Structure prediction request, 147 residues.
Amino acid sequence: MTRCSVTGAGFLLVMAATLSAQSPEADVRKAQEARFAATIKADLAALSGLLADDMTYGHSNSKIETKTEFLDLIKTGHYQYKSIAPREVTSRLYGDVALLGGLADIDVVSGGQPVSVNLRFLEVWVKQGGRWKLAAWQSTRLPAPTP
Prediction:
């Protein structure tokens, strides 16, 4: 093989690897999708792996929970998430920190009562050990549409 063909082949391999690699933004969005899916399935093992140990979860009713509290309430069935439909999600990356924000429609049974909320949310994701983990969730209810 000539020097030119080795260099050309190396260039093609680097380009292929670059094109097939996920961007950090795509990776954090996949982590968000995985968290929503694990929450709906009440998959505590998967969910625990997606939450930072010092996570804070701010519900739209202003209640704040730690990771342990949030997982325990899902484990006991206090929270039974039926659907989480995010929309208009935006993201900003700052190194190993990502902010995701948007709107979401959530159907959940909370304390035995069905609740449907339309909300605006802000998530803080941090990259720890090579994986994106949710460090904070904060949401606020949107006003009901006027007729």
